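Translate sequence into structure tokens.
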Amino acid sequence: MSTNKSIALLNEMAIFAKVVETGSFSEAARQLGATPSATSRAIARLEKALGTQLLQRTTRKLRLSESGEEIHARCRDMLNAAQAVLSVSGAFDAEPQGQVRVSVPKAVGHALIHPHMPDFLAAHPKVDVLLRLEDRYMDLIDDQVDLAIRITDQPPPGLMGRRLMRIDHLLCATPQYLQRHGMPDHPRALKEHDCIYLGESPADARWRFRRQGKSVNVEVRGRYAANHTGVRLDATLRHLGIASLPYFIARPRLEEGSLVQVLPQWSFRTRYCGELWALYPATRHLPPRLSAFVQFLAQRLAQEPALAPGAKPAP
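Result follows.
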């Protein structure tokens, strides 16, 4: 039997299974919202298409023929499979529940994601969250994570996602350090300063700047480098030099005046600048727990203040 023909008979197969289940054309018709005659005609069409008698009819009851026994078992399996499909699809409309496993860079996870988790957990009592704070690239399948929060220009092939916010970096120092060593007036002047940089690779000591379409690259040096944002922040507050910091980390200190932005008229570019995305495997149906988590983050992080270009340093 061709696929098209079998699909056309799915309704008749379901009616046949209901007739056998109820043991009566009239009862099956009642449960299906049809008439007994329409139900009888459906069975007749199925028998004609299959070329075999399915039911032996008597005045008191129905009895399956030998071929009807085998065919009924297959029809019952078909209905069970259909019910399983409905159960799965229904799960996508259900209340969010289960665990959300999230890969996130350390600084972003600690400063931007973690502070909002009490509110998320309170709003979704059936959802658990596992935050994996790691700066290394994590594969969603191999590392068994549901969601990756990354800085990228656009979702990589095979992934889709939602933009959360803009990540900017800037240079900062304390007023005390700048009072002793002076405020640089050009990126090249940084060569005369102690600079606190990431230190994971030689490229981390090559700082890149842009202003009005002009690019400047500067090889900086310093006595202290650290691959932890919190450590670089603390080192800066201890007047050890000019540090590269994410704006979301430096902002509270800038607002209180314990840090001052250095070279604010220049755009400071690093490989950690860009759009922050919540990424997940390409799918038309995102599980409710992930959908709720992504929507929550998008709403909260959209409220994060952005770095104002050309901001003036504190006096």
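Note: Residues 310-315 have pLDDT under 50 and may be disordered.
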